[in-house]
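does this look right to u?? glycyl-adenosine-5'-phosphate version
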Amino acid sequence: MDLMQKIISFSKRRGFVFPSSEIYGGFNSSYDFGPLGVLLKNNIKKSWLDEMLKNQENIVGIDAAILMSPKVWQASGHLTAGFADELVECKKCHKRFKLDELKERECPECKGEITKPKQFNLMMKTFVGSTEDENTVAYLRPETCQGIYINFKNVMNSMRLKLPFGIAQIGKSFRNEITTKNFIFRMREFEQMEMQWFCDPKEEDKWFDYWKKQRLNWYYNLGLDKNKLRAKEIPEKERAHYAKKQVDIEYEFPFGWKEIEGIHNRGDWDLGQHSKSSGESLIYKDDKTGKEFIPHIIETSVGVERSLLAFLADAYSEVEGGRTKTTESTKEKEIVLKFDKKLSPFQVAVFPLLKNKPELVKKAKEVCKILKPYFMLQYDEGGSIGRRYRRQDEIGTLFCITIDFDTLEDSSVTVRDRDTMKQERVKIEKLAEYLGEKCS
Ligand code: GAP
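got this back:
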């Protein structure tokens, strides 16, 4: 089994990601996030929001609607050729492909002849209201940032912001992708974390470089392997229609180097277009110089699921024969998810040494009650302690706590570290503080 197949089946077995509508045979490219996937996703989103709203200066949040006036998409260029892929179809097997994904001008499946390319718009259509005609057509947003641009003035005025400032948003986007593959890498429904930085045009290059560095640091700080990350400048002919300059942050997935985040200099494209189309002036007046201009935008845009796949692939490791050297190895292959402490779905697991000793179970549940307000925690009483450690290592839990007979005497527990596998005795009264320091 190749690494990607292993990650896919592991994700299902341990409750990270399930194929959507599985009992009906699945639904192409849709996935559901299970109990652990939700925790991981939330940790990624929290870490991104903390970075934008706490660690950086002058950035505020917004949560705009998915459905917007179709005029937004006319102005932004998404309804015109700007947001279309070149689609080709095999004349023999009728499979469809994106032209730029084909290595040869023939069907990769059956080697059949392919049709001439057609423009295929990726916007997903729906109808708003009780009739279905061209007057009620609406679109599911294909990027979250347009909701930021059309609220530029609302946000700036309500928060009394001065340039440069940023608006950050996390939300769902939809694209009718021609081909979806590589698990959750390319889907038709996904979440984006986008930050739009509004600045004086004179300063756009400085801010572009600043954001490129900051975004790379975010991945480094969350423990992604530096050797598997790179920033790639995108040449003009491959850039999105709105981008004057584009750098993609790429990660080396098991299926190759692929984009996980785009940093774009969108210039005055978006605010200019919305000014023209809506008739509402989106010009900014500098108080100090009196200069008036349309702010330029540096955008950072990352997919939640795509980054989750990078974090998961990066953390996934297999140890043949097991990690334990002190006791006779089980000779089984052990999986360890070496997530950064900010990303692990569970920080702590609590075990009574034996499940048939009510006094140990009672004490373990007391310890859970003490820790639960502070940590994402799992209680497990099934199987040997070794097996329980392995179950937790497999999902990246940082610390395992065992309540044994000594606990009943001296009110201390054994705390075992996922990475070093070292064990320490810690008093129950000090446990929350001890773990708090280690997890922060
Ligand atoms: N607002 C700019 C924008 O949307 P993009 O390069 O089209 O730029 C940004 O998308 C990020 O969104 C990508 O780097 C990727 O992480 C994520 N993304 C885009 N399309 C996706 C899809 N079909 N499935 C999953 N993630 C996607």
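The two ends are 37 Å apart (CA to CA). idk if thats expected tbh
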